[in-house]
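Task card 7
Instruction: Convert sequence to structure tokens.
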Amino acid sequence: MTALGAFAFTGALSALALAALMLGAFAVGRRVGRHSVVDVAWGLGFVLVAAVGLSTATADLARAWLLFGLVAVWGVRLAAHIHRRSRGSGEDPRYDRLLSRAPGSRDAYALRMVYLLQGALVWLISLPVQVSAHVSGPPGALAAAGAALWLFGFCFEAVGDAQLRRFKADPANRGRIMDRGLWAWTRHPNYFGDACVWWGLFLVASGSWWVLVTLPALLVMTFLLTRGSGQRLLDEHMAGRPGWAEYARRTSAFVPLPPRRAAR
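Output:
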């Protein structure tokens, strides 16, 4: 089988696996009355694709195992964090707003626009991992640099999530804006960490120039984090809270930077 044929097989198998995962998540979401369960499936979807890539790999297995390990650690941590954060809470306001505009069946709209759309995005963003399984040689210096960037992003995201969790757990902080630790340097340490993770994975996957063809997938991911469903929507949701305007004025939106001084 040619590399192109092997990738086509991996891509098709990944798409089927993601469709099954998202259909299962949809069934759970309907049962519990909360479609935000798809956010847990999001991280697990990447792990599933990496597992498919590893199981069908026709190129260097060391690189395939490295990619699977990095994706699995990141995806499982993210899924566990979101599950713990959302347990016992109501529907995510983002999905409430989206589904309030549903033309016709709310469930059918949720399946298309919440679950299957996110499954398609997982497939697209993970293209470097899928292609790398069939065209890359042994990992070298570029893969080491990518793993280092992945580690930085993973730690940045995990520390930011832990800081926010501790902040919210203190009743004295109810109604206040989190502006400590990493959150004093960027309004979205989790999204910035995510971006570093996936650009790092792209470097790890880049054992052949063929992987460069998947660069648009990383650009889509970065756009979603900074202008799509990530930073922009959360900023809009937070805009009306007391103290947000001042926090947003002094704190970088995405890339960590020293806090700006208050205007005199």
